Amino acid sequence: MDFYQVNLVAFVLLNGSMVYQQYKKEKAAEISEKLLDCDTESLIGDANIPRADSATAFTKTFFPVYVLVWAADWLQGPFIYTLYKDEKQLPEEIVARLFTTGFLAGAVSALFVGSLADRFGRRAACMLYCVITILSCVTVLSDNTSILFFGRALGGLGTTLMYTVFEAWMVAEYNHRGLERTSLKLSTIFGRMTTLSSVVAVLSGLVGQGLVSYTKTNCAPFIASVCCLVPAALFIWIKWTENFGDNNTSHKTGPSLRLLLGG
């Protein structure tokens, strides 16, 4: 094996070991908490105390979406430049402007994305991310420069949403469910997110390269991203509840998306 393959195998094994060790640790904590739940109920009855099952249900609600969203992002990243420069034969100056457009869109949207998500709903903002990023991926099928610039602007906005609203929803939902009184701590969730992101990055890179080799086009990873984002959006729509920045606003499950989209 060459140097790249050796490092890849080592990185995969390292991340796999981290995931396994974290799984064992969390499984032990879950068993301990279930035993504690039984002892607590025998002493004080059925009090309004979150159970270990609540923590498990929460992780099963959040992490499938998290993995799909990050897979969609990692699938695209390595192939944006080669798509523009090599496949579409765009001049270097145009490629630079496309990337600049994405960065500027991300910087400008960072000024208002957080406050709008707090006002209209973080669940709605997460679904909006899926829609925007799907549109951004679809634009790469066009050779029209204006459409490509539009797609890069959408990509910049999507990146800002991805790095803000999903974690904001998770933290708010965690606190709303009172999970701080269980063995599932926020530090554990963020640690698992970091580990999963690393594993997903490696696997997405391999899948993306395989798709490019098989289809002979750098557009393939972007279509694969769409295939990740569609089930993510459906899962959010069906499973997630809405939360807002205003502590006086109750959780809701439906209409905030229409508000965010101006309907």
Keywords for this entry:
263 residues; single chain; 78% helix
Question: How is the topology of this model organized?
Answer:
Layout: H1 3-44, H2 52-76, H3 80-87, H4 92-109, H5 113-120, H6 122-139, H7 145-162, H8 165-176, H9 186-215, H10 220-239, H11 256-260
Helix pairs in contact: 1-9, 2-9, 2-10, 4-7, 5-6, 6-7, 6-8, 6-10
Mean pLDDT over the full residue set: 83
Largest sheet: none
Shape field: globular
Helical residues, percent: over 70%
Return the structural class. Answer: mainly alpha
Description of the molecule:
The chain is an all-alpha fold and 263 residues long. The protein has helices spanning 3-44, 52-76, 80-87, 92-109, 113-120, 122-139, 145-162, 165-176, 186-215, 220-239, 256-260. Helix 1 packs antiparallel against helix 9 (186-215). The termini are far apart.
Summary of the model, kept short:
With 263 residues, this protein is mainly alpha-helical. The chain has helices spanning 3-44, 52-76, 80-87, 92-109, 113-120, 122-139, 145-162, 165-176, 186-215, 220-239, 256-260.
